[in-house]
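Morning run. Coffee first, then this:
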Amino acid sequence: DEYLAYHYAAAANWAQAACYSIAAADGARQKLANHAAIKLYRQAAHAVGRDSASVDPATRVALFSRKGDTHMALSQKEEAKASFAQMLEAAKSAGDAVAECRALCALSTINQWQNRFSEAQSNAQAALSLAKKNKALEAIVTAHLNYAHLFIVDGRPLEAYPHVEAVETLAVGNDLRRERSRGMQLAGYLAIFRGDYASAHRCACQVHDLAQEDRDFLAMGGASFSLGLALGEQAKYTQARVALRAGLQAEEQSGELHY
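And here it is:
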């Protein structure tokens, strides 16, 4: 794919160059080679920039979504923000409300990382309203996850509970495995805040098992850190160190710099 992308770019066939660059980048991501993937997604974005009219909006949505996700995995916040802003515009052009909602949630998450909580809440509210308006189940669950995370990060755990409960109800009833795992991770954080370390331990183990099956190393790392925190609060320091080291190892396997 990378070889074909090079030749299509040399022939100024930008639409094909973009498609083959995306395919090559996707392959790199599957192998957890995130830095190589970013190079190829940038190559695809360059091809789109040379002739955006020849690249359909759905392809642009996919490109900027995956490019943004990979930047986030590598903690490249500003580049991730730019990618998701481009995804948002492409989603609007494509009339894809679900993708638009996902882009808004991603922008809200980045706002949270940057301590811009007013912007984060504005994007979170826009995402949830759009998802409900379009009755898009997966988008609704994603928006609730984002809102719960926002309230936890902003130090308002009581306001996070209704969103975590909504995720659990909707995800379990509709077999949304990845979303349920993320919801359990947030439930674990809330359990730690209220001092219920047994529940936090149980949530972290469940999230870790699901993430391991899905080869989701970022989720595995997050679960290990939650487990380490819960064990540490119970003065089980040796076990906590083991869990935290496992988390660091999982993050290194994903190409993560820090989370």
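The chain has a mean pLDDT of 90. Good start to the day.
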